[in-house]
Amino acid sequence: MNLEIAGLTRRFGRTMAVAGVDLHAGPGVLGLLGPNGAGKTSLLRMMATAIPPTSGRLRLLDRDPGSYGPRREIRRRLGYLPQSLGYYPGFTVAEFVEYFALLKEMPPARIPAAVTIAVDRTALGGKANAKLRTLSGGMLRRVGIAQAIVNEPELLLLDEPTAGLDPEQRVAFRALLRALGQRATVVVSTHLVEDVGAACAQVVLMDQGKIVYDGTPGELAARGEGCGVGDAPLERGYSAVLAAARS
Amino acid sequence: MTAASAPAPSGLLPVMRRPGLAAARLLRLELRHSAMLWMLPVAIALFWLTTYRKTMAMPPLWNLRATSMQSGAITDFIAPVVGAAAWMGSREARRRTTDLVTISARPRWAERLTAWAATTSWAMAGYLGCLAVLYGVTAHQASWGGPLWWPAAVAAASLPTLSALGFAAGTLVPSRFTAPLAAIAAFFALALSTELIRGSHSYWQISPLVTGPWDTGPDAGVATFYHFVPDLPIAQVMFLAGLTTAVLGALALPEGAGPRSLRAAAAAVAAAGLLAAGTAVGLAGTGRLDNHGMIAIPALHDAASGRPIRYTPVCSHTAIPVCLNPAYASYLPDTAAALRPVLDELAGLPGTPARISQAAATYRQERGNSVAIGLTGPVLSGTPPVYHLLLPDQLDGPVMTASELASLVRSGAGSDLVASVTGDGPGASQAQRAVTAALMIAAGLPMPGAAPEIVRHANSQPGPSPGARCQRPAAGCPALRVGPGAGPRGQPPPGPAPGSPAYAAARRFAALPAAARRAWLVQHLTALRAGRVTVAQLP
Q1: Is B299 at the interface with chain A, CB within 8 A?
Q2: Which of B102, B20, B25 is nearest to A95 (CA)?
Q3: Do residue B98 and residue A86 have CB atoms under 8 angstroms apart?
Q4: Distance between CA atoms of residues A150 and A165, nearest Å
Q5: Domain count, chain B
Q6: Are residues B249 and B321 in the same domain?
Q7: Cβ-defined contact of A176 to B2 (cutoff 8 Å)
Q8: What is the pLDDT of residue B484?
Q9: pLDDT tens, residue by residue, B334-388
Q10: Which pLDDT belongs to residue B492?
Q11: How many CB atoms lie within 10 A of CB A160?
């Protein structure tokens, strides 16, 4: 298992953002759904080792991120796209991706080729030498994805990766997700259920810091038959599960 | 976006991480995007505007230019370096990349160190460029001596410290306002710290802006006749290195900056840095002004540095040769020309010096920041007698051009030289005063007592006591002080009062043909000096 979580909590002051999450995942694409404030981003940041959990057990890539040595090894094999991507406007696309490849301690000899591949996979090959300040929001999102995948991560965490992408790019991105999921554990936090339906083998639905559903997209769609609200089966399943959890 | 296959995951491949190469690549990226790159033109423009032009206006003496460059360059680089470093230190928070950087495998401290190193490297490159130009031009102009490297080293050591302080400020308070505020605060903190200096044993001398006894300003008399004493620069470099180490070490202390072993090592390094800085401050507090105008620190002092520098003087072809230290060779033509009329009047008279020789000044710390500067021995000594001359530039005061200096030498040393031959001074007879005044009129010098501009002169009286100058007139000190046990210095001998018999005799004697004047002096000068000639006996 690349991802083993048991009883995980995270508190910010009086707010319990993540309230006892249990989750297991191996290679494949896992969709993380939930309304705003459900705790998806906090859970993803704990998985990314950006913040420590308040309590509970977290094992990533068969290592305990609580200790510095294993945490460093996890970070070498981790890719993370935060919800709000910060960037340095003066860097070019290639420089930005190279910068994070170096911070991830990739072997220097492999970096130029890895940067080229990551930039090409996110369809930014023609913009490799463009300054980030000149790029559109969708392109910046793809730069964020490129820096996340440059080290061919075994655990890839993407927070709202398709925000700002046009339909054509989203279709291409789903194909990329499926390819990455063949070898790595990919966790995608999103509001767009069609992304989950198209790319994820497993879907987890969070509400108020807890997991209220863990199964396949097909099973989630089935939950909404006859009772959910929405235009698509997955949307109806999503709303039906949330309604049931809140009742 | 494409789902094309990619290389296998890094963890499955044999890993050749080569941290040195990775660090070099990171540094290259940081160098390309360092804010200091943008601030460099500002720093260089400030240097040119305030330091280079001022320093180039000084005589081409290595000591003057090196010390002026040290304090000037640091002042010019403070704000740009601290501001740029603070901007880089606050970058992650401002650009909201904290999460991305935090989850990277490379210790965060190492990443920060790279950004600091890039900032420092650009600052250092800019400074070294400025230094190279200034020293290069000085090497082209200077007639003697070589560059002083300790002042250059102090200025160079200041840059990593300023950069580290700015970077730490940006890291601790990551706001867009931190950079300008830190730059302004650093400028005023460093500039105002010198206001606290009192005397040569002040702890505040550790400030890298200090190049010697504070408030004396650039002094041409220092490190020309004696070797440069590096005691204070050594303490300053030690202080700066210690402070840099402590600040950079402290950046590795927060949790998440690196592994526990790294943080423990950083704590030890920071403590060692603080200890070094504290020791340097303590050493600066034990400093004292040595006889040659430099700050000596007993624990660091090398007695060999007090030895005089051997040199062959450059001499004029005047009736009485004027010999200067070769460093002042560019002053010789103007100085000799200024003294020529006096020397022509005096040459060949009994008791006249055989040579005018530039002497080293001696320094003595007085109250507060006041420093007494003057000659160690008598103005006239040896057989045949040699007149020891202190050029006005060797005293404290504004640096002057060669013609300004020559004018002061003419009115100051010229009248002093005449007085030393006639025996004029405190207790001199009216006849002596009249002859002195007559010779000065004949040589085209202003009448004694009628030249208020003659205030920078320290050779007016033969005798062992030094003249003195006060460095801070605003603090209530007179512009020229009286040395203990000596007559008034820095003024021409008092001339006869207008309307008095001596005044009339002086006018009469000056009006004589040069040959008649000389003939009378050859015959009666010994008696005149002994006080056996009256005004009435003057022709």
Answers
A1: no
A2: B25
A3: yes
A4: 20
A5: 2
A6: no
A7: yes
A8: 29
A9: 889 888 988 988 888 888 888 999 988 888 887 777 888 887 777 788 888 898 8
A10: 53
A11: 21
Do the Cβ atoms of A88 and B32 come within 8 Å?
no
CA distance B202 to B196: 8
Contacts of A145 in chain B (CB under 8 A): 1
Q: How far is A48 from chain B (nearest CA, A)?
A: 7
Classify the C-alpha dihedral A97-A103-A106-A111 as positive or negative. Answer: positive
In terms of Cβ atoms closer than 10 Å to its own Cβ (0-12, 13-18, 19+), residue B471 is buried
The answer to whether the bond into B321 is cis (omega within 30° of 0) is no
Residue A207 has pLDDT above 80, yes or no: yes
Closest CA to B152 of B235, B94, B67, B95: B67
Phi and psi torsions of A183, nearest 5°: -120, -30
Which of the residues in chain B have pLDDT under 50?
A: 5-14, 450-490
- Residue contact B8–A152, C-beta within 8 A: yes
| Residues B119 and B67 both lie in one domain | yes
**Binary contact (B22, A172; C-beta < 8 A):** no
Complex-level ipTM: 0.91
Examine the domain organization and report whether B413 and B343 are in the same domain. yes
Whether residue A179 lies inside any domain: the answer is no
Interface test with B, best of A45, A105, A162, A174 (most B CBs within 10 A): A105
Q: Has residue B4 been placed in a domain?
A: no
Nearest CA in chain B to A144: B100
Using one digit for the tens of pLDDT, what is the confidence trace for A168-185? 888 988 999 999 999 999
